[in-house]
Design goal:
Elements lengths: L1 H21 E3 L5 H17 L4 E14 L4 E14 L18 E11 L4 E11 L1
Antiparallel strand pairs: 1-2, 2-3, 3-4, 4-5
GO molecular function: cysteine-type endopeptidase inhibitor activity
Keywords: Disulfide bond, Protease inhibitor, Secreted, Signal, Thiol protease inhibitor
Protein name: Probable cystatin-16
Length: 128
C-alpha cells in the first residue's frame, strides 16, 4: 500500500510539473479565451442541479496549452437571483444572505474556433 501511495504522489507531481511548463498565460480578453470561458460557465449552469444561474466574478487564471486551442481557466462564480435559462444573467444581481453561494472552478476547454465548437475536457469545482 505505501508503494501505491508513493507512486500516486510521484505521478501527481509529474503531472503538476508538466502542466506548469505546457501551459502559457494568455490575456483574459483574448477572444477565443472569452468564448471558451463563456462556454464553460454555460456548461456549468446546464450541468448544475441548482435552479439558479451562476455568473463570473473573477478570472484567477487564463492559460492556453502550447500549440493547441486548449484553454485552462480558474474562475470564481457567484449564484444569482436569476434562473438558469433567463436572459442577461451577467447583469443579474447575486443572491445575498443565506442563499449566497460562491464556487471556484477549474475548467479545461478544447476550442475549435473556426466552427465555434467547444468541448469541456475537465471541470473541478469547490464551494467557497
Amino acid at each position: 500500500m505505501p508503494q501505491q501511495v508513493t507512486l500516486l504522489l510521484a505521478l501527481l507531481a509529474m503531472q503538476a510539473w508538466s502542466i506548469r511548463y505546457e501551459y502559457v498565460d494568455v490575456s483574459k480578453n483574448l477572444s477565443y479565451f472569452l468564448m471558451s470561458m463563456e462556454f464553460a460557465i454555460f456548461q456549468y449552469n446546464e450541468d448544475n442541479v441548482d435552479e439558479y444561474a451562476y455568473k463570473l466574478l473573477r478570472v484567477r487564471r487564463s492559460q492556453r496549452k502550447k500549440l493547441t486551442w486548449i484553454y485552462l481557466m480558474d474562475l470564481e462564480m457567484g449564484r444569482t437571483i436569476c434562473k438558469k435559462h433567463e436572459e442577461d444573467i451577467e447583469n443579474c444581481p447575486l443572491q445575498e444572505g443565506l442563499e449566497e453561494k460562491k464556487v471556484r472552478c477549474s475548467f479545461l476547454v478544447d476550442a475549435f474556433p473556426i466552427y465555434t465548437q467547444f468541448t469541456l475536457l475537465n471541470s473541478t469545482c469547490v464551494d467557497k
